[in-house]
């Protein structure tokens, strides 16, 4: 969302109150065998890893989004072709 809106929110209370956060935390809690502290660390790691991947592939994400706006649907092959272009 930082890339879309151009700024980072001052806090993450909207994210923490979302059903997406609840579902992600539930998955992390399951992986961490019920250890809430470990689940929080796992979720923080996953979120940071996602941020880094988005930063790395922002150009490809933009190209796929543009093609989706133009064509509504893309095949897996079309997405692979878009992602392969640099």
Structural class: mainly alpha
N- and C-termini, Cα separation: 23 Å
Mean of residue pLDDT values: 87
Number of strands: 0
Anisotropy-based shape: elongated
Q: How many separate structural domains?
A: 1
Instruction: Give the DSSP E fraction (strand runs of 2 or more residues).
Output: under 5%
Series of H and E elements: HHHHHH
Low-confidence stretches: none
Helix percent band: over 70%
The rounded Rg comes to: 16 Å
Main beta sheet: strand number and arrangement?
none
Number of H/I helices: 6
Which features characterize this protein?
86 residues
Write the layout of secondary structure elements.
Layout: H1 2-5, H2 13-17, H3 19-31, H4 36-56, H5 58-71, H6 76-84
Helix pairs in contact: 3-4, 5-6
């Amino acid at each position: 969302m930082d890339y879309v809106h151009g700024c980072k929110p001052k806090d993450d209370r909207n994210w923490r109150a979302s059903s997406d956060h609840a579902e992600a935390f539930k998955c992390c809690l399951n992986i961490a065998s019920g250890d809430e502290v470990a689940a929080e660390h796992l979720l923080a790691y996953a979120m940071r890893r996602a941020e880094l991947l988005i930063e790395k592939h922002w150009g490809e994400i933009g190209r796929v989004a543009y093609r989706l706006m133009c064509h509504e649907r893309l095949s897996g092959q079309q997405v692979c072709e878009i992602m392969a272009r640099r």
